[in-house]
Design brief:
It is built from three helices and no strands.
Length: about 70
């Protein structure tokens, strides 16, 4: 979608993917890193579309996941 210039649709899809993964990790914690990847992709697209403030909040969530990963 991004390659086609359909940024709003791509944002909606990435937000939905992150929301679904947030719900799923309660039952399947192994998906935590999938959520981190989804969040990073969302951050990249938010920055690309000029939504820097929202990107900052999503980046914080991503950072929390990465900082709390098992050693």
């Amino acid at each position: 979608l991004v390659a086609l210039g359909r940024h709003e649709e791509a944002l909606a899809d990435r937000r939905q993917s992150a929301a679904i993964l947030r719900q799923m990790i309660h039952d399947e914690p192994a998906l935590t890193y999938d959520l981190a990847g989804a969040l990073q992709g969302l951050v990249d697209l938010l920055i690309k579309t000029g939504r820097r403030l929202e990107a900052r909040f999503v980046q914080r969530e991503y950072n929390t996941i990465i900082e709390n990963r098992p050693a």
